């Protein structure tokens, strides 16, 4: 593998590397251009070194050549050296959510007009869906300041050219089913992938979409979908699980269904609400937003030029608050979507956390309620009852891992019960390497006993997004130097997390082999 450092390596050398890799794969310039959604002449310029290259384009070239050829600024081979045990200070602002962004990107397929998504987080999960959209002919353009995305689907999607590599790396590809079933009668999609959290079935999606006429046969890494056209006008969908993406899939299928769809046991979590607010802008009427029964009045032809600002990420908010809590610091986390943090904040208060909330204000989407939260150094103690997640309005499943490192800072034993994922809690046992007393009672339950006398260690980054960040935050608490190896996974869901923590005074250095 070659690491690119633009101070040392000229564009011509990069161009030569790309040419070599392309030829090794037996691709013509035109074929590579096709994979990248660009022209043959652009590839010729890149290979001659006469075209400037963005990090995004380099990442896509890497992927199109299916080679670990170019490691670009902080991707795969990056590691972090953390000098911990210091307090942080200052204000850090929550970015928009990964889960809202991916749902909205999928939903933009419903709109024949132009969708402008404002304030989209620059994260790898977004890049993957953008790559998939581009590969099927959708024109997706970042604004000059890199914050907004314009999305314009073509009249006819080219599903045969789908970027399977990008698609297989994300579970969110499953959310193409809902929008596509009203556009195509038969289509194929690659299997959904994602973090190592244990088996995550897609069966609830199949059950939810059956009333819309969808039939899916899964073979050889692909879903083969066929859609029956003779469906009743008024549909009733009962979700067997109150899952977020399954609810989104049902809503997206309903959005272009001619008639009314009633969805029961719907998730009313933040990303589902983001999706509903966007669909309302498109003229789709939805009753019951924020509740578990949604009535969607579909519209077969959606054609509107709209702008929607993705709302703030409650999981990032939890991550940033945790950074302050475990370093015993006073920091302010700005733009916290408070409705989606109520249980977390109440649980933290029970554990003795002192914090102050600013008056509420409204997010750029005009709907979500935000606050700034200032956490103060506190004497924490274990809660009396176990900490466990529930579908919204319970404690967010993705916020649970942060309670493990917080519990390790509290006196007493906290029982953490992750009933949701078979394989997420186990990654949290890496905290023991930093001195924490974490005992697995079974794959779903952890006893965490604190307070911890943290000490630095070298650890390979867990292959799961939230546990990876939990270990990084514990390293901020641990006196001395720690190394977290292979941190690329963090960029799947966090924009420039290390850089933003450094602005709060964290001592983190990125290095490569
Ligand atoms: C892109 C996106 O939005 N991802 C989120 C979404 O994933 P997503 O909606 O894909 O979550 P899954 O459907 O995989 O559900 C997560 C797990 O919870 C189980 N389950 C879920 C609901 C329920 O009522 N009963 C039940 O048992 C599922 O079987 C599965 O094991 O929701 C998860 C759970 O909030 C979050 O961790 C993910 O960050
Ligand atoms: C599990 C998560 O997301 P995804 O559904 O994208 O894997 C997460 O955000 O922690």
Automatic annotation (TrEMBL):
The keyword Transport does not apply. It catalyses: phosphoenolpyruvate + UDP-N-acetyl-alpha-D-glucosamine = UDP-N-acetyl-3-O-(1-carboxyvinyl)-alpha-D-glucosamine + phosphate. It is found in: Cytoplasm. Residues 18-72 form the HTH cro/C1-type domain. One of its GO terms (biological process) is peptidoglycan biosynthetic process. GO terms for molecular function: DNA binding; UDP-N-acetylglucosamine 1-carboxyvinyltransferase activity. It is an enzyme of class 2 (transferase). Its EC number is 2.5.1.7. CDD domains: HTH_XRE. GO terms for cellular component: cytoplasm. PROSITE patterns: HTH_CROC1 (PS50943). The keyword Flavoprotein does not apply. Gene3D superfamilies: Enolpyruvate transferase domain, lambda repressor-like DNA-binding domains. Pathway: Cell wall biogenesis; peptidoglycan biosynthesis. Keywords: Cell cycle, Cell division, Cell shape, Cell wall biogenesis/degradation, Cytoplasm, Peptidoglycan synthesis, Transferase. SMART domains: HTH_XRE. InterPro entries: Cro/C1-type_HTH, Enolpyruvate_Tfrase_dom, Enolpyruvate_Tfrase_sf, Lambda_DNA-bd_dom_sf, MurA_subfamily, RNA3'P_cycl/enolpyr_Trfase_a/b. It comes from the Bacteria. NCBIfam families: PRK09369.1. Belongs to the EPSP synthase family. MurA subfamily. Cell wall formation. Adds enolpyruvyl to UDP-N-acetylglucosamine. This is UDP-N-acetylglucosamine 1-carboxyvinyltransferase. It comes from Beutenbergia cavernae (strain ATCC BAA-8 / DSM 12333 / CCUG 43141 / JCM 11478 / NBRC 16432 / NCIMB 13614 / HKI 0122).
